[in-house]
Amino acid sequence: MSASTDTDPVRISVDTGVMEIVWNRPEKKNALSNAMYRAATAALARAVEDRSIRVVLLASEGDSFTSGNDLADFASAAAGGEPPAAGGFIEAIAQFPKPLVAAVPGLAVGVGTTMLFHCDLVFVASEAKLTTPFVNLGLVPEAASSMLIPDRIGYARAFAMFALGDGLTGAQAAQLGVANVALPQGEVLAAARDAARKLAQRPPGAVMATKKLMRDGETILGQLRAEGKVFGERLKTAEAMEAFMAFQQKRAPDFSRF
Length: 258
Known about the structure:
Elements: E1 10-15, E2 18-23, H1 34-49, E3 55-60, E4 64-66, H2 71-78, H3 86-95, E5 100-104, E6 107-109, H4 111-114, E7 121-125, E8 129-131, H5 145-153, H6 155-164, E9 167-169, H7 170-176, E10 181-183, H8 188-200, H9 204-214, H10 217-235, H11 238-248
Parallel strand pairs: 2-3, 3-5, 4-6, 5-7, 6-8, 7-10
Antiparallel strand pairs: 1-2, 8-9
Helix pairs in contact: 1-3, 2-11, 3-10, 5-6, 5-10
């Protein structure tokens, strides 16, 4: 696979068995557009088929991992435009059979956090902030996170993340087992790359079989699709439209009339 250019919003490259998928929209805190989701989903599909690719590393340019979905795309979908392309990417990472490694240098919002629960190794900056403020947008959790996050960190803390928008620092994420280790921001990518290279040298069949045994893929996929149905319904509600309009108008949303 040829490397992407430095100006592509998703930069993709392959070296010594490791594919890197890099969110490359730092001026927008790496907000994920439909085009970015499609590019990443296509890269994951190619990684599944290419035997020379042993590991995929998710990384980012700038000091944010991703600020989550581009809300302009969500608002457009809510108004009857192009549906969000996030669902295809989420299913791809949930079913990806090879190791996934993440390097999180800073902000991880919404899907930026939920995708980490499908990664096998996560390296995070100590001062990073992980949030899942779905309810604030009139929405519900996605990526099977309504099951995976409570399973990992406990119900009460997970509900506070979903419903109140409470976050975790990178240091807390490491303490709770969401991440392998919290590091100074400048060391995160190098540590993730080192781990990815080590994984690429392990027997691939044994690695993939171990991953499959550790994850209840059928249950995860079922939860993910159940969430997706409700998420799609919520996206068209007046509550969600109020949240998107408030974001665009840079004001606090008013849910008092609902």
